[in-house]
Design goal:
Layout: H1 2-30, H2 34-79, E1 109-117, E2 129-130, E3 132-133, H3 153-161, H4 171-179, H5 183-186, E4 189-191, E5 201-211, H6 214-217, E6 230-237, E7 246-248, H7 252-260
Antiparallel strand pairs: 1-2, 1-5, 3-4, 5-6, 5-7
Length: 265
Amino acid sequence: RECLRRSSASQLARLEAKERRIRAKGAEESESDPQDEMLRGRGRLSWAGVWLSRVWLVLVQLALLYMIVRLSIPVVKNLISLHQAMNTSFDSFELLNTYGAFGSVTKVRKEVIIMGTNDEHPTASSNWQEYEFICKPGRVDRRPCTISPYHYRLDWLMWFAGFGAKEGGWLPHVAYKLLRGDQNALYLMAHNPFRDAPPRHIRAAHFVYRFTNRAEVGFFGPLFGQGPWWKREFEAEYPLLGGESIVSLDSPALKEYARKHKWDT
């Protein structure tokens, strides 16, 4: 009986200790730390701020989209109009506008071909050798180049020169540099036919270029070496200075032009 009594007392003590531990744990959980509460509050506020910022961003983007669409209406109307206005703004703040390098493109391609010769008294029938630019059309068997992403500015200017004969400007300067064998100018060329010494005379001529067609070069054409890429016809001499298309370092007009623009200094 004494052993049973002691065992019952021991079990009762363990149950009471367990109950006290449970009560103590519950009390700890019920008593919240003020700092924890503050952090939880900040977390709720931060999430609310995130959602508010997202909503605000969406509203700003929608407003910007509406403004762009609204201001684009006159721009699009101008785009599909038969009388387009190029490089024009349609609102007081000039936020949207039309831009175009050319309102129209010519249907005929004219190229200025630069040639050189060492003949002492050159004529149109002399032995002229052509300079090849990096990208602009020259030889008819040469594939059209890809200009992106680099812009060949001299080739681009030569294309403008082909629109019409106009004396003076920058083209006589190119001829002057070629006559002097200027390495900076020759660096802009794809082919220099006068590697040993510069030519005595430089000539500019106007040619009309067009692409070859299937009847001339076959179905696959020049892609498989079946013919040239271009067909060209001589149109006229291209005047450089003084109405002359052929110049040299001894030309009075070129000498005066070089002195006036201080090319020798």
